[in-house]
UniProtKB/TrEMBL annotation:
<feature type="region of interest" description="Disordered">
    <location>
        <begin position="51"/>
        <end position="74"/>
    </location>
</feature>
<feature type="compositionally biased region" description="Basic residues">
    <location>
        <begin position="60"/>
        <end position="71"/>
    </location>
</feature>
<keyword id="KW-0699">rRNA-binding</keyword>
<dbReference type="InterPro" id="IPR023574">
    <property type="entry name" value="Ribosomal_uL4_dom_sf"/>
</dbReference>
<comment type="function">
    <text>Forms part of the polypeptide exit tunnel.</text>
</comment>
<keyword id="KW-0687">Ribonucleoprotein</keyword>
<dbReference type="InterPro" id="IPR013005">
    <property type="entry name" value="Ribosomal_uL4-like"/>
</dbReference>
<dbReference type="InterPro" id="IPR002136">
    <property type="entry name" value="Ribosomal_uL4"/>
</dbReference>
<comment type="function">
    <text>One of the primary rRNA binding proteins, this protein initially binds near the 5'-end of the 23S rRNA. It is important during the early stages of 50S assembly. It makes multiple contacts with different domains of the 23S rRNA in the assembled 50S subunit and ribosome.</text>
</comment>
<dbReference type="GO" id="GO:0005840">
    <property type="term" value="C:ribosome"/>
</dbReference>
<dbReference type="GO" id="GO:1990904">
    <property type="term" value="C:ribonucleoprotein complex"/>
</dbReference>
<dbReference type="GO" id="GO:0003735">
    <property type="term" value="F:structural constituent of ribosome"/>
</dbReference>
<keyword id="KW-0689">Ribosomal protein</keyword>
<comment type="similarity">
    <text>Belongs to the universal ribosomal protein uL4 family.</text>
</comment>
<dbReference type="GO" id="GO:0006412">
    <property type="term" value="P:translation"/>
</dbReference>
<keyword id="KW-0694">RNA-binding</keyword>
<protein>
    <recommendedName>
        <fullName>Large ribosomal subunit protein uL4</fullName>
    </recommendedName>
</protein>
Amino acid sequence: MPKIDVLDVKGNVVGDVELSEGIFGIEPNEHVVHEVVVALLANRRQGTRSALTRSEVRGGGRKPWRQKGTGRARAGTIRSPLWKGGGVIFAPKSRDYSKKVNKKVKALAMKSVFSAKAQDNELRVLNQLVMDAPKTKEMVAVLNNINAQKALIVLPENNEAIIRSANNIPKVATTTVSELNVYDMLKYDVLIMTQESLQKIEEVYA
């Protein structure tokens, strides 16, 4: 089983922990990761845009002039897309962009990214991360100590002090184990988690 050093907030090695082979030691599947990222981004699209076609624009029921004899082009309605105030040709309409992904595929994608982070030395495990009050300066110091400037901090559960401490730091974000997803993990260079977070992840994806 792969092992990883456990660090304290000062960056000192205080022990090590064995990582689950089935979660942090598999061969990453890039195709599955791509599929899940595409689905995640598609599911975030609202798809609420809409414009009016010629049949939906108010007015234009009467023929503007007779068909023949005026010398002008024939016209059936003043709401033609060719006219000012007319409808839109092939108007965009509301649609559902969502994609469904199998649970097993989602789990494999998560395990693939976990394994890639572990193999590329982009995973940091802290023995604990505790803050009594929001202190950005302290959080910056912790990140510098563990060499993680563009990082995603994975918490076992919501912690207001830690979240607010990281909010004002560029290229740093926080999430919980239950909200963790493939796209956010790929977006940041380093994945930071406490031993408690690691234990929860191994319980969820075992």
